[in-house]
Fold this protein.
Amino acid sequence: MTTEQLKDEAVEFKEQGNAAFKAGDWNGAIEAYTNAIKYGDQHKQLATFYKNRAAAYLKLEKFEQVVRDCNKSLELEPNEPKALFRRAQAKEQLGHFEEAYRDAVSVWNVDKSDKSVKSFVEHLHPIVQRRAEENAQTSSKVQKMMEIAFDMEKPQDTRTSAMNNILVLAREHVGAELLFKEGVIQKIVNLLKYEKNKEICVNAIRTIGELCNRSLQRTREVLQIIGVPWFLQILNSRETERVSAVQHCIQTILNSFSGMENKPDSKPNKEICEENKSEIDAILSTLVYSITEPTISGLARDAIIEIITRNSHYDALNWGERMVEIKGLHRLLMVCSELEEYKSESSMEITASSRTIAAVCLSRIYDTMYYDKLRERYRDQVDEFIKDKLLDPEMQEKVRVVVVLTSVLTCAPDVGSTIISREGILQMILAMASSDDVIQQKVACECIVAACLKQDKAKAIMSQGVDILKKLYNSKDDSIKVRALVGLCKLGSSGGVDASIRPFADGATLKLAEACRRFLIKPGKDKDIRKWAADGLAYLTLDAEVKEKLIDDTAAIKALIELAKTGDQDVLYGVVTTFVNLCNAYDKQEMVPEMVELAKFAKHHIPEEHELDDADFVNKRISMLTDAGITSALVALSKTESNNSKELIARVMNSICNLQELRGKVVQQGGAKALLPLCFNGTEKGKRQAAQALSRIGITINPEVAFPGQRHLEVIRPLLNQLNQDYTALENFEALMALCNLAQMNETVRQRIIKEGGLNKIEMYLMEDHLMLSRAATQVICNLVMSEDVIKLFEGNNDRVKFLCLLSEEEDEETAMAAAGALAILTSCSKICCEKMFEPASWLEIFHTLIANPSPQVQHRGLVIVLNVIRSSNEMAEKLLSTDVIDLLNGLSQLPDESRAKAREIAAECLKEAEKLQLVQKSNGNAE
């Protein structure tokens, strides 16, 4: 494109943005203005593009982005009033009142006739004055707390309290600024060299995180003082709370450099990432090189890998591809290859979850390999690592290769299958399994189990491995025996939920399940053996008979839940998959009768569902699991970075929430809080399941109880995402019902629904041919019209009021009642909406239906509408009462039916208003 064409393109995008902004589509406006900025890099209107995008960000309450765009606009057009005022509005919301006041005063000095600016300045003036006084007090408090906290001679409890106060001060904008100026960073660095009190150390680390939170400038200065490597030094600890604090701190620093926030739905901003590319790259490099550092603790290693996992899927950061480029996969594979049995002075310290956490990271990186060439590079690096290990003549290294292959088979099955099929690899694994060495037997057995991915792919390895598994099952070593058992369980479950397929003889599956149970509940068994027993049950519980036997086994269920409550990632798959199977929370193939008949004719196999998988049996199992405390176990495991595991957890939670009587227990045990992040991170199916579970909770339980604090605002987006035409009618309906309950809470909630584009999504369902969907959507609209902003939208050039008029004529009482209720609110607040009541060609029939409605509730609302129209203007009153409506009102005012007492009172009010306007006589005169 030529320069002129680019400029034209930029202007066109700006116009699209303006149109989207007027329509209330803030996200669409941002996208259009972003394109205008992209194409109009040298355009004379570039400042306007930034300024307009800032206005859209302001509507979405993304205040950091507002400030950033206004800054760029003001660099191009200094002192431009709109950019200054928008920045002032954003800074006020961010708590930077003094800066907001300064910007607003600058605008007001230019144009003192602007009432909105004047009002804003007057609003901020007392706040700024009060804060000046508070700041003086805060400054005094900062100095006092720092004197106490960093004085080793002071009593420990006094210092602990002072450091707690410093952390609280750091969360406030003024407090953070004052602490930073007083040199708190360097004092913390010095303190952590010799401080023994754990609480003081943790709060000191958290203070640094708070100073970096949502402040790019302070973050830069913090890193200039201490550098990224310092964080890794203090991360090196065996204290969980300290490691978590440092991990959070590093993530906060990364958030500042990438425009993210510590929220479930926050994502990096591509432009900000580009601006801070070198800093982000330095963080990644430092983390990657620390993965295999032999001197750090296992907890610290896990934390480093989790940070990489958490951020590797963001396109803006591009960490997935960068991990391949800088050979980060090699370091993760090194962690996967670690064995407790092969410990030496140079070995890395790992936790029970380290190999699982590293495998999850490898899986997340593989998921970012979007095209074949990237996947090939990924495979080549794994190949290269394995070949290097195999070149070493030591048997230890060959054992490590098999351990790594097990991890690769779980995290990147296609890569693992390709490698294991190469000449010599399978033979090596089988040879190890046949050896007399316990370690070799163990790792070979694990690899064989991992290699049985699917029934078709399992045949090759299992044709040779099945006899070995049977042999290993007779081992005297329980750690070998339980692994072989899982392999046999995997084979035994190859028919899936199809009751007509029995890979083993009848009764064999129950015998395998009993063997798993014994390992699971046997006293004194270590967690590793119990974890493998759970893995075995994960396969066997596809069998309905096993499910029923297991659910009645209180000891086994308790053992599974206790195992899950540890929160260890290595137990996650077996435990959660078992729960999924017990709740029948997996995807089920729809059996269309016509297709079944066709399959019979073609002599194809037809899957059969076991009678023990009927709804009654499933619901009984779900209730028993919930009573046993399954929700608490799922909450403990939900912190995983594995998207597939998140989906499994969401599926079980959703199955529990399907039963109305269990939803309260889910909320009590922290299920609603755990579900929220699952709505934003994970597989598409997982996010969908989590959102449906939240919908169900929102229908039954008061939203203020179910979603306390800010959670009732955060839940809105996942609920709106459920309003998707590709989703089931049940999902749509449940989301609408939950939104209806939320919309009646307060104006803040209604504003959030509007800002998330909810009104347009909800209105789509008013036109649905599905009664329940149409009714639910109308009920949500009835609650939303309590907002002034929604009323303004109904006043616009559209058919919204007309459509509600038509819905008020519906035979369904609930729909008509909601539509009439919405119209009653609209007509009570807006003369324009009263006028719009006459827009439908059948307006008189609509008024007839409302006044003479068989439902007392609809009739009452209808008469309120009539009263509102009469009171809105003489012209409309005359237009309405010059018809037979006056006769209907007369008749209704004398109706003796007590169920219509409210309607009768309003009808009398209408007649009084008509008398005041002298329309009763005129109407009677016309009638004569």
Q: What stands out?
A: Residues 495-505, 922-928 have pLDDT under 50 and may be disordered. Residues 3-112 form a domain with the Serine Threonine Protein Phosphatase 5, Tetratricopeptide repeat fold (CATH 1.25.40.10). The CA atoms of residues 585 and 651 lie 6 Å apart.
